């Protein structure tokens, strides 16, 4: 992404452009009303007769329409459409030993904290009712960047790739679970698709780069608290951007059995 594009996406520039769009839009609307009612002030009308003023007026009108359309959603919505980009900002801890992970099951949010400082907040997907995510206090005791499932995946049989739970003919390749951070036997954080409702078999999924950034923030021994709710739900929760991958199809099986299945972040992990 170019520097200019990054600046335009920053809160400061988005706010400034929004204000400008509103001013231009309001100016255009007032002028339209004045002209339609025939109530144009003669002084303003005379000024517009001058070439420079005519050019300025045209410039304002040209700026107003596209900016209003482009920035109608200046206050970014909390929902990301299926398959859309999902950017999460994560900050370097001052003291990695003070990092802790808080999981809110009801809100499907994860908060990575250092004291009262939020290092990262992101949407997650937790276990369904029949296979719930365990609650309680845990620690991260295993990390693996290119983890694959040992219980479900694919059987590679020559040119054929078919779903498999292991065993049987062919070469078994587990389903990708990138940036694995295990906190209980067979339970961990990992990269995967996010659904609006609890959908996993008990693990905690993070979308795309969020998984890689959590992986970079935690280490062996990082404490994890998983509960129905967290105090941060009230303060940080409303700011967490949502994502819905429920209608996004899996990549082709030929890709899922290779390292291309592990999505890598495009930019720096921590700021």
Low-confidence stretches: 1-77
The number of distinct helices, counting runs of at least 4 residues, comes to 7
What order do the SSEs take from the amino end to the carboxyl end, as H and E? HHHHEEEEEEEEEEEEHEHEH
Q: What name is given to the CATH topology of the largest domain?
A: L,D-transpeptidase catalytic domain-like
Based on secondary structure, the structural category is alpha+beta
Gross morphology is globular
Rg over C-alpha atoms, rounded to the nearest angstrom: 25 Å
Number of domains: 2
Residues in β-strands, percent: 25-35%
Give the CATH architecture of the largest domain.
Beta Barrel
Separation of the first and last Cα atoms: 16 Å
CATH classification class of the largest domain? Mainly Beta
- Order of adjacent strands in the largest pleated sheet: 5-13-2-3-4-12-11-10-6
Characterize the structure shown:
The protein is globular. It has helices at residues 3-9, 11-37, 42-49, 51-70, 209-217, 232-235, 253-256; strands spanning 79-80, 99-104, 109-114, 117-125, 136-139, 142-144, 148-157, 160-164, 171-176, 180-184, 187-191, 204-206, 223-227, 242-243. It has a nine-stranded mixed beta sheet, with helices on one face. With 271 residues, the protein is of the alpha+beta class. Helix 2 packs across helix 4 (51-70). The chain folds into two domains: 3-76; 80-261, L,D-transpeptidase catalytic domain-like, CATH 2.40.440. A hairpin with a 2-residue loop joins strand 3 (109-114) and strand 4. Residues 1-77 have low confidence and may be disordered.
């Amino acid at each position: 992404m170019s520097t200019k594009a990054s600046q335009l996406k920053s809160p400061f520039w988005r706010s400034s452009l929004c204000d400008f769009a509103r001013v231009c839009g309001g100016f255009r609307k007032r002028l339209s009303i004045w002209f339609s009612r025939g109530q144009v002030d003669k002084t303003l009308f005379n000024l517009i007769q001058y070439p420079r003023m005519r050019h300025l007026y045209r410039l304002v009108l040209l700026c107003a329409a596209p900016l209003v359309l482009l920035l109608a959603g200046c206050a970014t919505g909390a929902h990301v459409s299926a398959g859309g980009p999902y950017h999460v900002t994560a900050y370097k801890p001052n003291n990695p030993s003070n990092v802790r992970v808080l999981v809110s099951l009801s809100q499907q949010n994860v908060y990575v904290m250092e004291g009262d400082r939020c290092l990262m907040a992101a949407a997650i997907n937790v276990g369904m009712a029949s296979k719930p995510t365990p609650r309680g206090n845990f620690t991260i005791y295993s990390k693996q960047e290119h983890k694959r499932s040992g219980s479900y995946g694919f059987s590679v049989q020559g040119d054929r790739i078919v779903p498999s739970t292991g065993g049987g003919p062919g070469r078994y390749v587990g389903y990708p679970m990138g940036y694995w951070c295990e906190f209980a036997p067979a339970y961990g954080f990992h990269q995967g698709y996010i659904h609006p409702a609890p959908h996993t078999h008990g693990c905690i999924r993070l979308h795309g780069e969020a998984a890689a950034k959590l992986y970079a923030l935690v280490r062996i021994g990082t404490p994890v608290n998983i509960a129905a709710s967290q105090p941060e739900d009230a303060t940080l929760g409303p700011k967490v951007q949502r994502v819905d991958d429920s209608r996004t199809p899996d990549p082709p099986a030929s890709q899922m059995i290779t390292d291309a299945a592990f999505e890598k972040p495009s930019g720096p992990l921590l700021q």
